[in-house]
Amino acid sequence: MNQKYLIPLTAVFLLFLVAYTGVEGAGLQWFFGIVFPYVAIIAFLAGFVYKVLGWASSAVPFRIPTTCGQQKSLPWIKQNSIDNPDTSTGVFVRMVLEIFLFRSLFRNTKAAFNRNDSNKLSYSWEIFLWVGALAFHYSFLVVVLRHFRFFTSPVPSCLKWLEYIDGIVQLGLPGIFLSGVVLLAATLYLLARRIFDVKVTYISQAADYFPLFLIIGIAATGLSMRYFTKVDIVSIKTLTMGLATFSPVIPEGVGGLFYAHIFLVSILFAYFPASKLMHMGGIFLSPTRNMANNTRAKRHVNPWNYDVKTHTYPEYEDHFREKMIEAGLPVDKKE
Amino acid sequence: MSDEIKPDELLNKIDYGPRSDKGPGNWMDTSVQIRPGMYCYAAKAESVETLGLPNARPWNPLEEDWKLPENWQEILHQGMKERLEKFRTFKVFMDICVRCGACADKCHFFLGTGDPKNMPVLRAELLRSVYRNDFSTAAKILSKVPGGKALAGARPMTMDVLKEWWYYFFQCTECRRCSVFCPYGIDTAEITIMGRELLNLLGLNIDWIATPVSNCFKTGNHLGIQPHAFKDMIDFFVEDIEEVTGVNVEPQLNKKGADILFITPSGDVFADPGTYTCQGYMILFKYLKDKYGLDVTWSTYASEGGNFGFFTSHETMKRLNAKMFAEAKRLGVKWILGGECGHMWRVINQYMDTMNGPADFLEEPVNPITGTKFENSKSTKMVHITEFTADLIKHGKLELDKSRNSNRTLTFHDSCNPARGMGLLDEPRYVIQNCCDHFYEMPPNTIRELTFCCGSGAGLNAGENIELRMAGGLPRANAVKHVHEKYGVNSLATICAIDRAALPTLMDYWVPGVDVIGVHELVGNALILPGEKKRTQDLRFEPLPGFEEEDDE
To answer: In chain A, what residues touch B106 (CB-CB under 8 Å)?
Structure first.
């Protein structure tokens, strides 16, 4: 067992126990149900804003998009206006495709080297990471949106629609929500990749396993409450509505499992701005994707551009004048 | 180079399953072994001094003591701090990587060496681990809770870390291939550029970069060719071309009031097979002068298109690049035409106007022969030679005899920078296809924006790091080998001077029997000069198709 994942796994397990026993044993419902969720949300919002403002405060001295297709050039050469945009419309489309469809990841290939046969390097399309990532992010999004039903009263109809579609596979009682199952499966796939793909194992840090275990913990506690142990939904909604309306109450009849769930969620929120999860905000600000490749047509200004010492032509001519004259090269000053 | 590693030995080393000598430990705990064959010699003190860069002194990477200033950690810390504020790329890329591993097997150095620290993600993590230690509040807080240190993934800046930086930031050619695949567009070129800037604060450059930079500053070009010698070299070409074509193509140098200033890498003037490309330009300009009266001048002061300053620091890049606009202004030309070169064009396309513009003393470039406005360069006012030539061909302004290149079966190597820092993909192909009969593409995963580096870019084309170069060039060579065997490709066309210098060695090593040829060498062979004699030889003095036997006798 590798300590890179042993530590995060233990941490998530301990966090679960802290909340569970804290509620079941010490009666700290008010802390895990009210105080910590508020603290976490404040940490999340403040941290997120702080981080994004921090990035935004750094200059963008040069326009350096990665060009992934034909540039705008002569009128009869077909430009790839999405992968090599020269207008803000092109950049917008490129960004939308990156943010919503993970376009760059879609290109992923897997390299293989056949040593003994032909010594050939080959590259095959590798789509599973893209599928796994897309499944993970979208199911997570649906799960998060569905949870807004706990913070709204009456529940908006768009949420009901979402629930209807999410539960379209009628299976068992209560009906299965696809998103929850997909979320758990996708997270387990991403975890398996980290553990079994040797390259990914090698690059992984504890900070990569921690959010995965945390999300697995959240999904597992959530799924078990919905499908197995069952909880008092009405009481829970009393609690969550209390949080949403800033008049928190602790209802009767809600067990430790729920508090463990909400505690792990709070941990995720609080941890978010301090972690790699900030890629959610960072992708919008990535200069290799969010800029047009048109620096030759439209000047980009560097806010901190400063003068530098160069070797000027007069200095150059002074140095080489005699040799230049001898070679018949024109000079500005003839002695 | 007799102690050079054999191709088979090199191939035996490749293993994409990272081997860790110390079991499944953390890569952060393994220290670097600087290995001959994989690194370039240290910058000479006098080259560092020319531009007044810090800490010029003799030093040797293999020695324990790198002769650093006492407060070197402080210098690096301040250097990082400053760059985090100056470059959003740096700050964002330090924070948002999720280590998904999509970039891992996209790097030619990883594919050729199997060294896990050549995975782009780890190259960046070399910096990130220190960034998290020095600049991340979160990591500092985390370190205080139990297990938080592991969670933070941070490490302090030590001599071992510094050596690792130096070794691996000079094993990256800033080719940007990984950046195409990264879901957040994290660009390892940018990371390496920052890493090298920081290393340069301590005087830790390599000589294959520092000396060209120093030469370029003083004499106008990387190779240190002085003005009279530059003219001599051009004169040699004039003689050679006259022998082949019967026409005197003597170009103009440093001529005030010309229409266009032409700037190309000095490598084209200096060494085969770049010299033939250079002759191609000269033939083209002579043709345009005689037919259409186009007045092109070369410059000895701005006699370098390339910019090894780009591999040193942003400031050094600017200091070297300044010559282009300064010379265009002094000579009073209308606009600038640039020759075939890789990183030169990334600098021109994405940096030059910002650094040294606005070029308001130049005119928006128009091809006077075809009337085409080069809309995409109306601010920088510098046009790529293949854009220019493609336009001429499209308008039927060039008389080309393709059959003179018909002994060549070609493929085209997209150079990294024009491909991923510009998107110049179809222009060179159009020129090639109009100058030759037989053209085959390499497999789709190895061309255009997915092209593989020659393995010697970004200043790594030295002799002492030959193993690194041959390993890094393997993916490129492997794709050439594929079309060599499948279609009988015998010539690898390219639009980069570093390619012309690096690829012949790479081809001899992996795919013997493939020549490297600049696109404008093909043009020079095919173009029918007014008043030329019946040509029987190409620019390399090799018999043209149909004249082989005559030559044999």
So the answer is: 109, 111
